[in-house]
Amino acid sequence: MIMARDEHSVTPQSQDFSAWYNDVVFRAELVDRGPVRGSMVIRPYGYRIWELLQADLDGRIKATGHQNAYFPLLIPQSYMAREAEHVEGFAPEFFTVTHAGGKELEEPLIVRPTSETIIGEMMAKWISSYRDLPLLLNQWANVLRWELRPRMFLRTSEFLWQEGHTAHATAADAVAETMLALGFYQDVATGIAALATVPGEKTPGERFAGAERTFTIEAMMRDGRALQAGTSHFMGTNFAAAFGITFTGESGTAELCQTTSWGMSTRMIGGLIMTHGDDKGLVLPPDLAPYQAVIVPIGRGEQAQTTLTAASGLAAALQRAGIRTHVDDRPQVSPGFKFNDWEMRGVPIRLELGPRDLAAGTALMSRRLSYPQPDAAKQAIPLDAAPELLTAELAAFQAMLARRAVDFREEHTAVVDTWPEFTVAVAGGWALALHCGEQACEDEIKAETAASPRCIPLDGEPAQGTCIRCVKPSAYGKRLIFARAY
Amino acid sequence: MIMARDEHSVTPQSQDFSAWYNDVVFRAELVDRGPVRGSMVIRPYGYRIWELLQADLDGRIKATGHQNAYFPLLIPQSYMAREAEHVEGFAPEFFTVTHAGGKELEEPLIVRPTSETIIGEMMAKWISSYRDLPLLLNQWANVLRWELRPRMFLRTSEFLWQEGHTAHATAADAVAETMLALGFYQDVATGIAALATVPGEKTPGERFAGAERTFTIEAMMRDGRALQAGTSHFMGTNFAAAFGITFTGESGTAELCQTTSWGMSTRMIGGLIMTHGDDKGLVLPPDLAPYQAVIVPIGRGEQAQTTLTAASGLAAALQRAGIRTHVDDRPQVSPGFKFNDWEMRGVPIRLELGPRDLAAGTALMSRRLSYPQPDAAKQAIPLDAAPELLTAELAAFQAMLARRAVDFREEHTAVVDTWPEFTVAVAGGWALALHCGEQACEDEIKAETAASPRCIPLDGEPAQGTCIRCVKPSAYGKRLIFARAY
Hints:
Two copies of one chain form a homodimer. Chain A is built from 15 helices and 23 strands. The first copy, chain A, is an alpha+beta fold.
């Protein structure tokens, strides 16, 4: 019998959040380290989370008239250079192909860190009239950005994402599109991922390289830090000018298009791990859990076969009800090992099925977590009502996690008006504070506290006064969220 | 009003098959050329075909216990070199990253041309006991292979595919897996793609670099050439030995795993274009058609709005019945332009809806193609029965294309026993011939006729005799398919 302690215990969150995170992602078999520094292998248990997230987001993207396409991975270096701010922002992260087919290339190729340039080049070719607008494209792809301090899911040299790219006739249309995409992200984040994200706009210093305006959804992790979980950019005519994306308007004059881009990535998985996890390991929201319920059959000898058969029957009934169910039939490990294993791997509901349960026509149900009241008690549920009961349990679990995330964020967010209050707030959570809007002042705050402005919340109350740091008059007309961030 | 002729006419197949193909892929807006030589942009109309194919194949892969995962794009050069035949086969096609983060890398990285090596490295880490087997993985990914003579979908420097990679305890298990995957491909090809593929084994000279045995499905294009539409490889212990993929058996001894890999790619789209297309352009099998039916509302002035409203209502009814339907409501082009456009773009069923049709409660239906009898007649169908009728029409259209492909292949395949017959057969189709099995002889045949052995058909009748070329005794125990190939 394999001993449970080493394989399933993770460093407690409170002791070392970073070590806890690493323990969870590797021991839960979400990922492994790739052979190249900063690279990540997404293992089946982690990739399934991504597939579930993809399916939901892709549905939203298609339902609003966007079409998927695929653009080349390798981008001529000269394209990257055409938009000055863009290349300045991304050049330090380039992976560069210099050789192909045994020869040195005339022009080096950049492995895409993002696709505005190559898609801009194609848009210029495809758009000629106002009748071609809006052009609403999306791509699911891998992107590469050199990373010195890798962190699984959050910062790796390669990650998976979708990138929406659209072109419009007017700035108003493009801004509306930018907000539509932000809405997808907020709905996905607060819906299936059960995060407590706040949508808002980035300050100029935090904008995407080449954007006029950048919007974000910011989530709070259980160490109080912020995670940017999706961004949407209004480019104005910056890329249209660089790539010649023009259209002939109804009046017959040539005009530059207004473009947008927006992306959500595998980083989101890091966000949900750090939002819901606890000292026992991973906690998965049911909507994104590869297995929503795991059944552990119990019994020795002849009884083992009887309970295993019953477990398979129960799993089939649950699967027919749309519940992703797994039967842990490993003969070589004990029930206790399995309980610890699936607890660490974050499965929302566990069902135990032993000979006595079977005789009573019941199974013992345990929830991975309960909130606000702790409730570790196992509960006997009738087998024939299990599909119905579990459907309700999973919906309740999903809602419970979402509520827990909101409560946590609210408990760890402080409205602050003095510098000492600010430094206390950002040491363990978020500060809502007024700011002068000057970059130098942002930089000073960051140097001193490691906190940066995460966003100007869209639904923030109007507020004015003096800057939390330099006491100049405040900008933006409302408070900003400041936090240390991933 | 835009003139139709130039935009919709394609070079006739019989006149220049290659020019016909290029006309179709670009004018139907399946793809565009990327900025880098040999690169391809997959436009929404082409990408949707891929998504439909992916969904079907992914379902088959998952239903048989395989799990999706994701492995890094960049592979250390030293990994590629560990299996001698593998590196020899792929090195000429490498794209090489030499710089990252502004510095030259200590070891160059290869942009994956296929992932046996990096997945082999991870398998070695994950597998320790016979209980870990079989390990059944699949990845949907982009791969890059330098291409001097690019051809859209068929040979491009980057393409999309799935690559299955599995590890087993015994050779028998691994061979069974190899055949299971080949079965996926044959089912997808003959099912949703309506191709007339022949499953078979490759001769040693045509094997995947590093494989013990390679299986393929070979399709016949309408110029008589063959297209390899999916391959499945039994690796034996070649990669296990190179990467140290071992397991401890039940008896406690360490053994090498037996591995497989198998892939199907966007090349399949080229295969269906060249199997079903005709002089008017693309013909899409309904199961893979982005739009299965297109409705063209007809009428001027006030009537235009009336028929457009009716067309939208009809489209909604068809969509509810699961039919992918598009209403062509472009005001700036004529109905005739639209008819030609959708014909060229291969939509299986067209519906015209004019004021007179509407008054009669009908729509005029045209099929893109009929076989074996030509049938260009439009047919009035009652609007309220349209969902039911079109569901049946689409199924019949799918079956018709599959039958047409089989008939075409059979008409263009000859059983040959003399060299003159052979050269005639491979000039316009396939030859079924006996062969001695020697590489030098294969090479001679290829040099003289451009034909190569495509496969040893799995269901070929036993046959023996003398080689079609050198008159030595035949090998393989059956006839081989020889053809010029893409």
